[in-house]
Amino acid sequence: MSTARLVLDGVACRRGGRLLFDEFGLALAAGEAALVTGPNGVGKSSLIRIAAGLLAPAAGRVEATGARALLAEAAALDTERTLADAVGFWAALDGARGRVPEALDAVGLGVLAEVPVRMLSTGQRRRAALARVVAGGAAIWLLDEPVNGLDAASTTLLEGLVARHRAGGGIVLVASHVPVALPGARVLPLEPAA
Ligand SMILES: Nc1ncnc2c1ncn2[C@@H]1O[C@H](COP(=O)(O)OP(=O)(O)OP(=O)(O)O)[C@@H](O)[C@H]1O
């Protein structure tokens, strides 16, 4: 994991024919994190999707060394399955089904492993989505508005997981319109294109 690297160079984003931002750059090495801030609609989610390789930049390039895991707005967990099964579905694709119990414990949901996802609260679903990221074992975490729906204790838990991931050589890119405590992270305000 220590060879992980994420570079965005001169990235521009166009959505619906409108240029949202341009000339955005960052370079993160193993253990580093960045926090992209900015008001609603400036393009933070779009930037995260570009970093994930799910959206093509209008200009510039993205270079990722290491697997990428995305925490997006939707949890993407089958609501009819139990929590362990729903997270396990994704973990199995990463060959990591065995890590699910530990990941659920890490987000404080071990006790709800056999409960259907549809019965979880908003904050619990958010933590379940985070468990999916933790279980997958990717080096590069891309977290879009990760504290949405989380209470203070869960926010602290998330910050701890991010710190642990970085200590293990992982990279974390967070987009958030509210403050997230990421000690030593670069804070990058996303500016609208002129
Ligand atoms: N598929 C799309 N087609 C056209 N425009 C889009 C599409 N997706 C997003 N947009 C527009 O792009 C702009 C940026 O959206 P984005 O979700 O990236 O912003 P954001 O900074 O993450 O906002 P928020 O803080 O509200 O989540 C918005 O004006 C949005 O309406």
UniProtKB/TrEMBL annotation:
Ranges where the ABC transporter domain occurs: 6-194
Keyword Cell membrane: no
Highest taxon of the lineage: Bacteria
This protein's record includes keyword Electron transport: no
NCBIfam families: ccmA (TIGR01189)
Protein keywords: ATP-binding, Cytochrome c-type biogenesis, Hydrolase, Membrane, Nucleotide-binding, Translocase, Transport
Any one Gene Ontology molecular-function term assigned to this protein's record: transmembrane transporter activity
Pfam families: ABC_tran
Its EC number(s): 3.6.3.41
Enzyme class: hydrolase
UniProt name for this protein: Heme ABC exporter ATP-binding protein CcmA
